[in-house]
Design brief:
The chain is an alpha/beta fold. It has one domain: Rossmann fold, CATH 3.40.50.720. Helix content is 44%, strand content 15%. The chain has a 7-stranded parallel sheet, sandwiched between helices. Helix 1 links the parallel strand 1 and strand 2. The radius of gyration is 17 Å and the shape is globular. The mean pLDDT is 95. The structure holds nicotinamide-adenine-dinucleotide (NAD).
Amino acid sequence: MKSDRLTGDVAVVTGAASGIDRAIAIELARHGAVVACADLDDTGCTRTVDEITEAGGKAFGVHIDIGDAASVDRAFAEVFDRTGKITVLVNGAAVTRFSQLPECSDEEWNFVMNINLTGAFRCLRAVHPYMSRTGGRIVQISSTSGKSGGSWAGPHYVASKAGLIGLTKYAAGYFVKDGIRVNAICPGVTETPLTDQGEHTAATRAQQVSGVPMGRIGTPEDTAGVALFLVSDESRYITGITVDVTGGRYMYGN
Ligand SMILES: NC(=O)c1ccc[n+]([C@@H]2O[C@H](COP(=O)([O-])OP(=O)(O)OC[C@H]3O[C@@H](n4cnc5c(N)ncnc54)[C@H](O)[C@@H]3O)[C@@H](O)[C@H]2O)c1
C-alpha cells in the first residue's frame, strides 16, 4: 500500500474493467480504499480485482450496465449491502463512436447519450441516498473534447462529455449540503483500448502528439493521480471544478 489516506473509504468505480477507470480503481486501492469495480465486462473486472488483491488491496467486482436504471440501482444496493457505506464514486464508464454528423443516426446518438451522460446521471441519483449518510466525493470523467468540440469522436460523444461538465456543476451545488464534493476530470488523448478504435492511424496519432507541449499522449496513470487528489482530503475545499489532464494542451483548437 502506498498510503492510508483512503482507509475507511468504499469507492465505486464504473468502467473499472479497462483503461483509465481501471487505473483509477488500482490507485484508490493502493491508498487504502475498498474498491467496488463496476462494469459490464465481468471478465475485465475480475482481472482488475485480482490485480488489486494480489498487491494486498481490497476490491470486489459488481456487474453494472449504466445504460439501464434498474441495473444501476441494483449495483449500488449490492455495494451498500456488502460494505455498509459508499463514500467515493468515480463515474468513468463510457463508449465512443466515430461517425460524424451526417452519418450519425438517432439510434447511435441515443445509444451514446444514454450511456455517457444519462448513465452518469443514474449513478449520481443511485448513490445519493447512501452517500448522503456519510458525505463523500464524486469524480466524473469528462473529456477535453467536451470543451474543444474535438476532432475525432462524433457529435454524440462530444455533447455527452460537455453535458457531464454541466452535470458536475449542478451536482456539486445540489450535493454540497450533504457534505458531498463533485468534480470532473477532462483527460486529453490517453492510451487505452478506447483510443485503439476508429481511424486511429499513425498519422492521426502523430497529429495528436504534435498538439501536446509535453510531447506525448497521456497514460491512464496520469489521470488516476488527479482522481486520487480529488477524492482525498487534500482537495477538501474544491467542488464543482474541472481539471484538465492534457500535457499542457490548453488550447482547444485541434
Ligand atoms: N482514452 C482517452 O483518450 C480518453 C480521453 C478523454 C476522456 N476519456 C474518458 O475516460 C473514460 C475511460 O475511457 P477509456 O479510454 O479508459 O475507455 P475503455 O473503453 O478502456 O473503458 C471504458 C469502460 O467502460 C465500460 N462500459 C462501457 N459501457 C458500459 C455500460 N453501459 N455499463 C458499464 N460499463 C460500461 C467498458 O466495459 C470499459 O471497461 C471514459 O469516460 C472516456 O470517455 C478517455
